[in-house]
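Researcher: Last one for today. Full complex below.
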Amino acid sequence: MSQNEIVTDAVIIGAGPVGLFAVFELGLLDIKCHLIDILDRPGGQCAELYPEKPIYDIPGFPMVTGQGLTDNLLQQIAPFGAQFHYNRMVNTLEKLPDGTFRLTTDADEVFLCKVVVIAAGGGSFQPKRPPVEGIEAFENKSVFYAVRKMDDFRDQDLVIVGGGDSALDWTLNLQPIVRSLTLVHRRDAFKAAPASVNKMKELVMAGKINFLLGQIGKLDGVDGQIDHVHITMDSGDLPVPATRLLPFFGLTMKLGPVADWGLELNDNLIAVDTEKFQSSIPGIFAIGDINHYPGKLKLILSGFHEAALMAQAAKATISPGERVVFQYTTSSTKLQKKLGVV
Amino acid sequence: MKILVTDQDGAEHELEGLDGWRTMEVIRDWGLNIKAECGGACSCATCHVYVAEPWFSQLPPPSDDEEDLLYSTLDKKPNSRLSCQILLNDDLDGMQVTLAESARRDP
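Model: Here's the assembly. Have a good evening.
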């Protein structure tokens, strides 16, 4: 059982743009938040799928990139001191007899809170399985999609496949401790920080790592332990001796455990009303791409609107009977104090 | 203009296409089984289709990003493309595409 217990007003599942803005709307109503996200950083799809791509339909921003929007939102919500928990997936969510909620994560934490806001977008990001027949048999034994403990790679013969930041970062980080390292990418151009690419090329020049231009073919090995990774190159098939394989083929979204929480779903989306954006379980709200209601548009701006209305309803749940005076940030010194601007 | 789409179960659909739209958007708009999870950012490969000739040869060649993504699918064929990267125009009237298994939405 887990032992890291965190008590708060609201838990927001998902730190994408809509989850981040929920911190702002809840914060204006004095509701303290913890955010949980499966990625290692805020921004959700904006950070993972299109950090550099321009977005043209955020009100007030003729153009902003996914990363730019994320950075601005982080600045906007900074006064509210929300706490972020990255690299975690919420496994269970249950309503307790007293009407509060208990969540558990795969990092062995327990969150106790008064309201839950699901802002999980398209679900949780999971690594994509590379197009290699039979790779399942080796997964989590000698083939990994993430590095949990660097020590698992010490003195191993490692093959890393991919041309993005993950592939390059782990090439640089693991090179000093492995026995051998081969980086494989299907072309000689990388979508990674130029400094990392340069460092990697220096290691190749120095003979400390190998770089192969090709694609991953089949895997040889027994009982989940690989011994060779076949690389398909222009010159033919090259079996590379290997005891560990790290393929980085990007991430894909799966609904994940949300499906098991007893919420009414509509085609894998959480059904909500359009006054409170509340799910079929009172106290659990769903905003952004993960919800469904008649006329729903999957736009970031719709999620922002949903966050504002959700926050009013969340306040009524947390402080029943308390009169909530609707105020504007332009004129209310009370709100301005919360924002730290007066 | 029209495009002819064969879904993963072999059913054929004649869809009204719009000049300037992405093929993915038309397929998604008509409710066929296409995941298209990144929404057209050329960042996933879940709008993967096979394009029949003569249309395949008429398309502008794929970018390096698109090629990388196509190589990440299990069911790539020589006429594979990401449908979010196929902008419709009148020259593509009647284009026949088949949805790849890897474009299916989650069950």
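The first helix of chain B runs from residue 23 to 29. Chain B has three helices and five strands.
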